[in-house]
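ARCHIVE CARD
CATEGORY: sequence design from structure
SOURCE FIELD: tokenized fold
FIELD CONTENT:
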């Protein structure tokens, strides 16, 4: 079972997700998006599955610090570059298991996906 989590090491929700996985005996790999660059392919795939509106955290401090021009970007390639420049714009944690992506931490969703 290959589980990957993408987030920030100091994010409390990411820590909760990791603790839940550990408590349930599930091994995973955690990627701090500030230290491990996200590829354009990863971001494009996630955006295709989730949509940019779900993937971007528009309530974050980072989002509030962007220019109006940056906030109004709609082109996928521009949005990919924006998230690569500001990885904390991505909602987190993002869990990838097989072909399924879960965004945020929800015990019920984690249980349904991982305890089969």
């Amino acid at each position: 079972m290959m589980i990957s989590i993408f987030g920030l090491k100091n994010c409390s929700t990411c820590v909760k997700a990791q603790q839940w996985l550990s408590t349930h005996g599930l091994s995973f790999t955690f990627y701090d998006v500030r230290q491990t660059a996200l590829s354009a392919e990863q971001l494009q795939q996630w955006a295709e599955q989730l949509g940019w509106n779900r993937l971007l955290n528009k309530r974050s401090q980072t989002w509030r610090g962007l220019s109006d021009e940056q906030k109004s970007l709609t082109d996928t390639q521009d949005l990919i570059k924006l998230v690569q420049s500001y990885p904390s714009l991505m909602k987190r944690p993002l869990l990838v298991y097989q072909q399924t992506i879960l965004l945020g931490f929800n015990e019920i969703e984690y249980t349904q996906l991982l305890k089969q």
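CARD ANNOTATION: The longest strand covers residues 3-7. The helical segments are 12-23, 40-50, 52-55, 61-64, 68-71, 76-85, 107-114.
SHELF: design records, drawer C
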